[in-house]
Amino acid sequence: MPERLEIAAALREIARLLDVKGGDRFRVRGYKGAARALETLEEDLATLLWENRLAEVRGLGPKTAAVVREIFETGRSALLEKLRAETPEGSVELSHVPGMTARRRAVLLEHGIRGVDALEAAAGEGRLRDLPGFGEATERRFVEALDALRRHGGKTLLVHATHAAEGLAAWMAKAPEVSRTAIAGDVRRGLELTSGVDVVVAARTQAAAARRAAAFPAATSARREKGRVVLRLAEGFEARVVLAAPAAFADAV
Q: Is the Cβ–Cβ distance between 146 and 98 less than 8 Å?
């Protein structure tokens, strides 16, 4: 049975994928609002569902409440799975690049440039200028934008990072191989502008814990590094899951 924050993460991913597809902006806002409603919900979600009162919660409507019920009861969302299947790999990452339009993103995907790393490589090698709708000036602007992202990007407000960190910690805590979780990094220090999300887990089996982290519903990509899993979240910033042995947990936090 998914936790409240896990369901909120799924709603945010739905909003992001709808936005990337160019969906109705009011529908996108509706799913973002529903996610916020769940994140700040004070009543017990199971009770609200049992009493058929979920649609009465401010920020939730009949359609978003139905999606919440579906995920709560089945652990999946048909809408989310459909959107994931329809969204090309790398499309979400590209949507966060300044100056990126839906048309340019489509051209990049058509030419096999999927994600920020591939875009940076293509721009650095001078391959963007020959693509339809680009040119040298556009390529130069993307080089500058990507450089700015590397130096200053990935930052997010504390309130958004906190929600993501809580959702990720709750997701990891449900894994049988994980005995403890803790939010660390900028969120734990309370920095108003954070460099992403850090969650430390005590895992008896790191490989299994890494697979669990990579399956986080709000992650658009994942890569395994020594002692941790780095996720790129649908909201556009990174989350790092540090994998620690139970005896080393306190030192890793």
A: no
